[in-house]
Design goal:
It is built from 1 helix and 7 strands. The protein is mainly beta. The chain has 2 domains: 39 residues, no CATH class; 65 residues, no CATH class. Strand 5 and strand 6 form a beta hairpin.
Length: 113
Amino acid sequence: MSSIPFALISSYYSALQFNRDGLMTASSPWSGYYRVESPIWFTAHTMQFASPKWMHLQKNQGVQLLSAGSSIVSLVNPDSEDLTIILETMVINNFMTVYLYIEPKHQIFFLLK
């Protein structure tokens, strides 16, 4: 099971609440013009590191919010020991340094289902 948090392509009147709520939008779809919105870039970025069968780890077990709106999302391949850790942010005004420390021992991860 998977979910897409945005419409792939949306086309709503500008007066409506969700007028730019899609990965790509077309305010005048008959014109052939469309606009690529910012959510497409982090969606594409995440898809570079995981396949559809990969699973998210649970909150506070590899998924959590960081300061200033950033977050960490971890995905695992249920068929192997592969792990991907993705650090995301919508806005960054300065350089950011993130230190990850994983204790040198057996780690237990809990999968979301």
